[in-house]
Each structure stands twice: as C-alpha cells, then as structure tokens.
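During the no-cost extension, the postdoctoral fellow (Dr. R.K.) reprocessed legacy sequence entries with the updated structure-token encoder. One reprocessed record is reproduced below for audit purposes.
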Amino acid sequence: MLSRPKSLGLRYSSRRPHLNWCYKKRRRNPIDLSFFTSIGGESTLSNAHSALLLVFMLACFESLIGIGLFVSGVFLLGVASYLLSQELISGTQLAISAAAGAMLGDHVGFFFGRFLGPRLHHTRLFIRHADRILKTENMIARWGGIAVPIGRFVPAIRSIVPALLGTSGFAPNRFILIDTLSCATWAGALVLLATGVDKLV
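Re-encoded structure tokens follow.
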C-alpha cells in the first residue's frame, strides 16, 4: 500500500478506488469577486469610479468640436439623474466630474481652433453646418467673451463656440478663466436638474 504523502496534505480514499488520492478540506480566505461583478454580472454603473468616468466622458464628448454636434445633453442628464437616484455618487462628485469633462472638451476645441485658424472654416464639418456657424460667429462678434457662458448653456452651439473663439484670436488666459467659471456654473445647474428629474420620477 502506498504511504500517505503528509507533506502534500493528501489522504488515501478507499471508498473511491478509481481515485488514489483526494485533498483534505482546508479553510481558505474568501475571494473578493467585486471586480468581476462590476464588469460582468452587474452594471458598471454600480461602481462609483466607472460612474464618475462615464459622467466625465459624456460631458467631454458633448463639448468636443465635431462630436458635440451629435451627442445630446439629454443623455447626460438622464445618466446623472439615475446615478443620483441610486446614490451611486454624490452631487458634489457629479458636479466635479462633469465640470472637468466639460472644461477638457472646451479647451481642446479652443486650442484646435487657435491652431487651425481660418482654415477651420474650410473643413467639411463647418461647411456642412455653415448656417449655424454664421449665427454663432455673429453672436461672438456682438458679445465677445460673454459668448462662452451663453454657448455653455445652449446645446446647439456648445461645441462650436470654443473653436470659433480660438480662430478669432481670443486671449487664451481670458478664455480659460471664463470657461472655468462657466463650466462650474453649468455643472451646478446639471446637479439641480438631475435632482429635480429624480424627484419627479
């Protein structure tokens, strides 16, 4: 008869001849499956970090030149309302994440327009939306820097205003200051609207 290899923690099983050895039962620490459930079994929105990243990306995309024309702000409002209703994130976290994403999108558009200059008007995107571009340029010519907060709260021109300001030679430092204040105010309004939608629903 084979001797029991004590070093491996195995014992001989006489009840199951087709198995020579079986393992002893041991206590093991429970395995944390939260990472896997956040990816597969449950929605990624159940993870606070994923939720904040989603808010950041949506706020950024709707502000980016080109992409922003096709991303509706209603979608971000719906997501924000859901996250607050499920208490997955706080209002402060929502505001900070949304403001950061909006500022990134606006700054990319501004410096992109500043880099291309008048050549931006000859791109396919600007030619296709020539009427909207012309109206936005007239608004910028009339209001100057005030066009930044106006554009932030008007979804139809939100992604166009920063790029057009960049092509106009608007001072970068002044744009950054005005845009930061505008995005912060807009993010606060988003939290209020999302909270209101949650209460109505």
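The chain has one domain: 48-200. Residues 48-200 form one domain. The remaining legacy entries will be reprocessed before the final report is submitted.
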